[in-house]
Amino acid sequence: LRKFALFRRVLFRSKANFRRAFAAAEAAEPTDILMIYLAGHGIALGDEYYFLTAQARSAELADPAVREQVAISSAELVEWLKQSPALKQVMVLDTCAAGQAAGKLVEKRDIASDQIRAIERLKDRTGFHVLMGSAADAVSFEATQYEQGLLTYALLHGMRGAALRENEFIDVSTLFQHAADEVPKLASNIGGIQRPRIAAPRGTSFDVGQLTAEDREAIPLASAKPRILAAW
Length: 232
Description:
This protein is an alpha/beta fold and about 230 residues long. It contains seven helices and 13 strands. β9 (about 140-145) and β10 form a beta hairpin.
């Protein structure tokens, strides 16, 4: 099982690097699994969704020339994914602001409904499994209590054993559902509301990995830190 998934680790600082990574996925076999995890900033312009690369200096993308240089549209993602022969494809999209401001316990950013609709269209056109960090009418959080985004924390928690099949295999639907169930609880602990969204064809779940006990112990998972409030 360690060999049937196609992984490529790339420093995605530029759009050119994204292109090269997806081009590398064209060497996949039909029996491979293509897995993509995008975290950072995403915006919606009209009916199109854009993921901002590290080269973007702001979320102002009204200029088409700027969008072409520093952002990746859902249409481009669709075209790049189509080029991979891998028949099983999985994407996690956590496109909320990831930075933590000094003195703040939680950083949040609203998710536009147009963004969610754009990703739904992406799913429909490619027929693969997509996990989104937030619903259309909510916010996504990154909390100091967990030292990372709530979605990432929930996924790692599931991989540590809470969402494994036979305590060993990572079933994509089981893992995604675990994250969808756990994130609202984590958000409630910090006084927020967040509900991830799953988009996937019915009846098409499959294993995306296998973890030994040693592998699970190596997964970094911070212990939730207590909130300390000043007494007045």
